[in-house]
Write a structure and sequence with these properties.
single chain; alpha+beta; 2 domains; 13-stranded mixed β-sheet; 8 helices; globular
């Protein structure tokens, strides 16, 4: 517990803009009985070029002691399959990386995201595409979406960067997409790799809440209260099926 606490504090201090999101969402969510929704459009997303930001919500879970926690991957997958309130639910995990080629070695902000993360935000890539569902699983092809900054610095802004190889943490990744200039989510990450390619031992354990933050896009006309009632019913069902899970 203390190791997790120290890690959380370091992450919040390192990524100050994420700290703003976290504090606001936890404050707004206090008092809810189950999954915690916080619409953060007015204070965080409004200045950003996301499509219909008023329909974007953050989704948190609470453990049995009432503490807000990140989401386990099995719960995340069940939410995606079962919810009727959302057009999409996507996940993101913070994971800084070492980029060693092309060019000089550099430590960069990295993110692991689900295949529909950018579609959920309503962001169109400048060049290329986001991950496919077939790539977003353990054993899938190593692919990466890179920032506009990295594209210009490492590939001179040339469109033929699509299909090129970059080496991250000793693994060769194929560039499939390039983000538009000015894109940021919490901070200026440079590399986005598939969330589902994580270690299956932890990714398949419902009791491991390893830092996945969920973002949902509400269906048109659905309110946050309606979505929360929907998700409460789903999570109550999951808790009955999997009593050893920690989320409420």
């Amino acid at each position: 517990m203390f190791q997790d606490l120290r890690y959380g504090v370091r992450m919040l201090l390192k990524h100050k803009s994420f700290t703003v999101i976290a504090v606001l969402s936890l404050t707004l969510g206090t008092g809810a009985n189950t999954l915690i929704f916080s619409i953060f459009q007015r204070v965080v997303l409004a200045p950003l070029p996301f499509d219909h930001p008023e329909r974007l919500v953050m989704i948190w879970a609470k453990n049995h002691r009432g503490f807000h926690v990140f989401v386990s991957n099995p719960d995340f997958q069940d939410w995606k399959r079962s919810s009727r309130s959302f057009d999409r639910i996507s996940g993101i995990q913070w994971h800084d990386r070492d980029l060693t080629s092309p060019g000089m070695a550099e430590h960069v902000y990295g993110r692991e995201v689900s295949s529909d993360f950018f579609s959920t935000l309503g962001v169109k890539l400048a060049v290329g595409r986001e991950f496919s569902a077939q790539e977003d699983w353990y054993g899938g092809a190593p692919v990466v979406v890179i920032s506009n900054r990295l594209w210009k610095n490492r590939f001179g802004g040339n469109s033929d960067a699509i299909g090129k190889i970059i080496t991250i943490d000793g693994v060769d990744y194929t560039v499939v997409g390039i983000l538009p200039p000015g894109f940021r989510f919490a901070d200026d990450a440079d590399v986005y790799t598939p969330l589902g390619q994580g270690d299956p031992i932890t990714m398949n354990d419902r009791a491991v809440h390893g830092g996945i933050l969920c973002i949902g896009r509400l269906n048109p006309g659905v309110t946050a209260d309606q979505a929360q009632a929907d998700m409460r019913a789903i999570q109550n069902g999951l808790n009955q099926l999997y009593p050893n899970g920690i989320a409420d």
